[in-house]
Amino acid sequence: MKKFKIGHIEISNNLILAPMAGVTDLAFRRICKDFGVGLVCAEMVSIDGIVHKNEKSLNMLKVDKYERPLSMQIFGNNLSSYVKATQYVEQNCECDIIDINMGCPAPKVAERSQAGASLLKDPNKIGEIVRSVVINTSKPVTVKLRIGWDVNNINVVEVAKICEQNGASALTIHGRTRSQYFSGKSDWSWISKVKDSVKIPVIGNGDIINEITAKDMFEKTNCDAIMIARAAQGNPWIFQEIDTFLLTGKYTKKPTPKEVIDIIVKHVGILIKEKGELRGVREMRKQIVWYLKNIPKELKSQDINQKAVEVSTKNDIIKLLEINIRK
Q1: CA dihedral for 18, 21, 24, 28, sign (positive or negative)
Q2: CA gap 236, 32 in Å, rounded
Q3: Cα–Cα nearest to 98, from 125, 124, 63
Q4: pLDDT tens per residue across span 164-176
């Protein structure tokens, strides 16, 4: 564990919460900060949504000073929209870093919008996009990449060099191709190859699920930091667990049912404050199901997950947890 910098931004440790659509909103980012993550990344925002002043897109740019340093991720395909969106973020968003998504595999992003991982098929355009963002902001610019479009088109080393040459301050490498989506195994060897090919910080991403895999990622790739995605869903404790293990070699006790309940209630409280009870509770439903994975089966009712996706108020959530979980 160590401090590291992205551009001029100093980060307290080299653990990062990945940007995840529908997951890493302000509430969850704040919860993860409580458990020691060094940098949080907001869910990706469409550059076209920013340019056209879409209310949902602009609301996603909201930052709480408590969660900083924070990276705001943008995605899209159009060069002029990147310029305008970057200028808007520069003037109106209190984030510390701007990240460009060039790794999202979702069809609506990579195919319909020709953004995300689709950009890997056009390295020259990647260079133009990175340069256009860099010259329109005072914030460090980072890029999140997959290793290629498919197994026959792995070009992440070439793309990484292009990003660096055009001013990127750091790179995050997810060791899968776009065609893999989230299946199969993340190939960390490409993260190591990128690290050997550039001078800017390289962040390793993919298949980090616990203390051991975190340690392995650092040792096998020599990366500067690690980014944790799906393993953090409903499990903000993972950052504390990895931090403790890497510093001391000791494992941290898993959260008790009461601790899980307390965090669920705190999480929904932040959501309600930010979005109102109706929307906040609706968005919390899937989060509750993820949190409940931390509680042993024998301590919770069999149908608690089904009941969790039917709650409508904060009181519903509190009653659900009180009645269906044995502490």
Answers
A1: negative
A2: 5
A3: 63
A4: 999 999 999 999 9
Please report the pLDDT score of residue 2 as a whole number: 83
Residue 277 identity: E
135 vs 311: CA distance, rounded Å? 47
Hey, what amino acid is at 296?
Answer: P
Residue (of 262, 213, 263) closest to 242 by Cα position = 213
The residues pairing with 39 across neighbouring beta strands, listed in sequence order, are 16
Q: How far apart are CA 175 and CA 187, in angstroms?
A: 5
Of 32, 104, 163, 223, the active-site residue reads: 104
Q: What is the pLDDT of residues 183-207, one digit of tens each?
A: 999 999 999 999 999 999 999 999 9
The question of whether 104 is a catalytic residue gets the answer: yes
99 beta partners: 73, 142
- Measured between alpha carbons, how far is 2 from 228 in angstroms, rounded to an integer? 17
Cα(100)–Cα(81) distance, integer angstroms: 13
Nearest to 176 by CA among 103, 106, 226: 103
Encoding tokens for residue 46? 């469409």
